[in-house]
Amino acid sequence: MPVAIDHYLFLSLALFSIGVVGVLTRRNVIVMLMSIELILNAVNINLVAFSRYWGTVDGQIFAIFIITDAAAEAAVGLGIILAFFRNRETVLADEMDMMRW
Amino acid sequence: MDSVLFYFFSALAIASAVLMVTRRNIVHSAVFLITALLATAGIFLQLQAEFLFVVQIILYVGGIMVLFVFVIMLVNLDLSLHLMQFNRMKFVSTILAAVLAGQLFTAFWITRNSLNLGPRGEAMAQPHNTESIAQALFQNYMLPFEIASILLLVAMIGAVVMAKRKV
Amino acid sequence: MNTPLPYFLDHIWLIPLFPLLTAAAMLFFGRRLKNDVVNYLCVGSVALSFIHSVGAFFQLLSLPAGERVASKILFDWIPATPFHAADGSLRYFSAPWGFQLDPLSAVMILIVTGVGLLIHVYSTGYMAQEGGYYRFFGYLNLFMFSMLMLVLANNMLVMFVGWEGVGTCSYLLIGFYFHKKSASDAGKKAFIVNRVGDAGFLLGIFMTSALLGTINFNEIGPALANGHFASGDPRITAIALLLFVGAAGKSAQIPLYVWLPDAMEGPTPVSALIHAATMVTAGVYMVTRMNYVYQLSPTALEVVGVIGAITAIFAASIGVVQNDIKKVLAYSTVSQLGYMFLACGVGAFTAGIFHLMTHAFFKGLLFLAAGSVIHALSGEQDMRKMGGLAKKIPVTYWTMLIATLAIAGIFPFAGFLSKDLILGKTYEKDVMLWLIGYFTAGMTAFYMFRLIFMTFHGQSRVDHEVEHHIHESPKSMLIPLVILAALSITGGWLSWPEIFGGNSRFVHFLEPVIAVPHLAREEATKGPGSPLGELKLMLLSEGLVVLGIFFAWYLYIKRTSLPGKIAKSLNGFYELVYHKYYVDEIYDAMFVNRAKDLGLALGAFDRNIVDGLGVNGAGWLTRAISRLSMWWDTWIVDGSVRLGSRIVWILSFPVRMIQDGSMQHYMLLIVIGLLGFAAYYFHLWHVAGH
Question: How many domains, chain A?
């Protein structure tokens, strides 16, 4: 008996939630970025699962683009972290509050 | 066999994710993210999306995670510097995330039997996954493909500019 | 009268006009003229007036006796203005600008222009070295105009114009040396005291208009007759007394005489013309003009007579002890004016006018001669510093002696005849008044000869440097003296007493003017019933006069130390009389200081209340309001603006707090939003039918 789609949905949901918790909770911005990668992966799982159960490849193609985008974003984001670290010597989100009122 | 693989990889993924989020050592978090990504790749394989399985490992793990590790090495501070791993709103955030999860869980649970999906696509079972992707990508999704290439160009330039010592 | 009047009678209005024109000329461009030009203009205009006066007089004589009136109206000055009299009837007040020549005004214009001309000539010499030469003659001519208007007027209001005019000119001329405080003070005193009299005169004019309906001199007589006023009617008495108040002010009778002695501050020609010959006689002229009114009021006549007599003896007593030559003459003038009013008071109006004429001659001469003496002594006026001048300034001496004989009343000089006429009429009416007049005559003789002896005879008490410069005056000053001396001798011969042949031409001439013709004729006959009684009176007065002259000789030539001893022994009395019975001081305390007090009180009121409350109060109020305004602006107007901004600030607090720079906070908000969306879609899905 093949795995029912809802199993994949629950898996995706779990990974998504853990990723959200990581983003909101951790002080280190690198860990925040990694949590964001985790969220994107949860979405990919969802897309591919549905692509499999619909019988089309559109979901997978969307997933390819998401991976592309995640790469670009990680590159730029890490570049920003490096630049910020050079200026302020910190990678903690609490200490990155200059853009306040 | 399907479900065994599925349960194995999903357990691995969730465990890795949880560990990643909670480790004090960033390098440990990175390693656990790698394992989570590898587990995800396994899920892809189990879903007979071979191309994505390969792309996930090469790109995500081999590219992005390597990049992460490089940056971690560059900005790694002494662990004793930060006593707190988690910020002040950890409880509120966890609860809210839990509420969100709960809401979505409820939604999925209630509708788990009414998802009207086609049979497990026989077409997908054909060992032509890469071919189909290629066909769809270069025919139907040509424009997004080109745009994605420009996006990567921009990202590359941006990353170079951001990381330079002197502008 | 449809036949046109002869030239001079038709042109009597030119007589005041000539001096008016030259006065105006002096006003506009007198400053630039040389003294010679001023002489030709000003003296010339008076000469023209004199010629016209003489011409008019003779042409008047040519008219029959009962018709000797020539009127000339130039224009309707005040047209008939209606008003309601006290009894409710509608009356009219009108005054034409009219001139009238009749015997009385003819006599007056001859005196005014004749003596005036002589004094003008005299002034060209006397004022030759003074500054403001053109100003002096301008004022003098203006005075001539005013006096001639007064005398030639045909109604009371035009006469009042002249009345005021002479008062003003008197002020201007007394204060001619305006740099001297005493002179300007004297001018002010003269004008103010005159004003008091003028108030009475004006009230008299108004009452006359209200009662009789007219102020024209020709119409008053008929109006009185038509009104059937009883003798002694209180209204008539009131008019008469009010008019007399004016006369007392102008002619320096008690109690308004105080200005005349002070008026000696003016130049001597002014004293001669104004305060001897002409202006001061205006009061007598006015009373004589209004004789119709006075004769209807025995009370008023009595008042006039009594005041005249008392003034005469009072002033004479002060004159006896004065040491300034001009002051003696001033008090003498007041005294002689008293005689004239005494005459009017007993009904002998023509006698009063006769004495006015002779007085103009000898008093004018006395003042001019005194001026000559002062001129010779380089300004010395104190008789104690004179003496022994007779040989040195002979012409002055002889003319002054003639005048003194005239005023003392020596037969047959002018003063004797006129004074005797008055005393004769007075004896008939009231022996008491005659007695006063009699003794005054004696005192007059005494103090006048005292003046002569102290000034011209005896040891010379003159200051050493002054003595070197003693010189006779120039011809321009001496000729008028001689002419006036001649007139002082012959002037009285117009009215020769009955017992010596009788010549009452003067009295007859003035007859038509006097209300009761038979009274005038009585004057002509003179004397208390019999010529013999008259002779007795004459001898009595001559005797007293000679006695007075003897006393003067004794005290001031024979035993010159005696006057000093007498003065010391009568010390208190002497001081009283010397200080003019302290009348000026009494007036000061009673009236002048009260006026000053009023001024000070009003000043204090102005300072404290008007300025204090009003001006400063307004300032304080303005500042208070501005402070209130400032508070309003700061707290209410600005406050509402600030309130608005503070409300926004307060309301923005929660919104501000959101943007704290922390990424994770923002992300939490996103998650919360997500929760919201999820809940919403749940709800929709639920509602849609599950």
Answer: 1
| Contact in structure between C516 and C407 (CB atoms under 8 Å) | no
Residue A97 lies in a domain: no
Q: Considering only the beta carbons, identify the residue of C664, C674, C690 that sits closest to B100.
A: C674
Domains of chain B, by residue range, sit at 1-81, 128-167
C668 touches chain B (CB under 8 A): yes
What digits encode the pLDDT tens for the residues C638-673?
Answer: 999 999 999 999 998 888 888 888 888 899 999 999
Kindly report whether the peptide bond that precedes residue C528 is cis, defined as omega within 30 degrees of 0.
no
Class of domain B1-81: mainly alpha
Contact indicator for C461, C385 with CB cutoff of 8 Å: yes
H or E segment and range at residue C630: helix C617-631
Longest dimension (CA), chain C: 169
**Closest residue to C660, CB basis, from A29, A32, A100:** A100
Yes or no, beta carbons of A24 and C668 under 8 Å apart: yes
| Chain C CB within 8 Å of residue A96 CB | yes
Nearest CA to C111 out of C28, C54, C31 is that of C54
Is A12 among the domain residues?
no
For residue A50, being part of any structural domain is answered with yes
Q: Chain A residue with minimal CA distance to B165?
A: A83
ipTM score assigned to the predicted complex: 0.92
B contact set with C (CB within 8 A): 87, 89, 92-93, 96-97, 99-100, 103-104, 106-107, 110
pLDDT digits (tens, 9 = 90+) for C330-388: 999 999 999 999 998 888 888 888 889 889 998 999 999 999 898 888 888 888 888 88
Any idea what the CATH number is for the domain that residue A76 is in? 1.10.287.3510
Q: What is the span of the domain harbouring residue A44?
A: 28-90
| pLDDT tens per residue across span C430-459 | 888 888 988 999 999 999 998 988 888 877
Question: For residue A76, is it within any domain?
Answer: yes
